[in-house]
């Protein structure tokens, strides 16, 4: 990886850490803190790069949308994609994808589950998305990525 790409990845990681600091404090259970989200974002970008795709930039507005959805799922105690069209509109994009998960012990386990599911795998490797937000509330995780 060239120096420019390493700097980009470092910048994205630092941006994610700063953006997630307040959201993670409000929405994360002890086992699912900022480190879980940051590591999951890193794993997704590494996986995309291994598949010849560009890494995703972290977008605060998508973190907020993902956070609202994770909190909603946690309150209802149910995985869902309810409200996806509203999140898509609020993101101001014509193309967004979303993966949700629940109760995975590690970011690696969650990513592995998504990779084994054809629909979730397609979302991870959607070539037209360029920005992502990831958030967690208790054990509910939302990955939301848009063009």
Quick overview:
The chain has helices at 3-27, 34-50, 60-76, 84-91, 107-116, 118-124; strands at 57-58, 96-102, 131-137, 140-146. With 147 residues, it is α+β, with helices and mostly antiparallel strands.
SSE inventory with pairings:
Blueprint: H1 3-27, H2 34-50, E1 57-58, H3 60-76, H4 84-91, E2 96-102, H5 107-116, H6 118-124, E3 131-137, E4 140-146
Parallel strand pairs: 1-3
Antiparallel strand pairs: 2-4, 3-4
Helix pairs in contact: 1-2, 1-3, 2-5
What does this structure look like?
- The protein has 147 residues and is of the alpha+beta class.
- It has helices spanning 3-27, 34-50, 60-76, 84-91, 107-116, 118-124; strands at 57-58, 96-102, 131-137, 140-146.
- It has a 4-stranded mixed beta sheet with strand order 1-3-4-2, with helices on both faces.
- Helix 1 runs antiparallel to helix 2 (34-50) and helix 2 packs across helix 5 (107-116).
- The chain starts with a helix and ends with a strand.
- Residues 3-8 and 10-30 have low confidence and may be disordered.
Characteristics of this structure?
alpha+beta, 16% strand, 147 residues
């Amino acid at each position: 990886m060239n120096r420019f790409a390493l700097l980009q990845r470092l910048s994205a990681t630092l941006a994610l850490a700063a953006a997630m600091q307040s959201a993670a404090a409000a929405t994360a259970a002890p086992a699912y803190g900022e480190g879980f989200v940051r590591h999951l974002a890193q794993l997704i970008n590494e996986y995309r790069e291994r598949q010849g795709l560009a890494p995703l930039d972290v977008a605060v507005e998508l973190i907020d949308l993902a956070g609202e959805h994770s909190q909603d799922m946690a309150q209802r105690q149910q995985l869902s994609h309810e409200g996806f069209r509203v999140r898509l509109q609020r993101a101001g994009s014509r193309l967004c994808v979303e993966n949700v998960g629940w109760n995975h012990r590690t970011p690696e386990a969650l990513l592995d589950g998504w990779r084994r599911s054809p629909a979730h795998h397609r979302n991870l490797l959607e070539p037209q998305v360029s920005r992502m937000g990831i958030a967690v509330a208790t054990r509910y995780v939302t990955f939301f990525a848009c063009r």
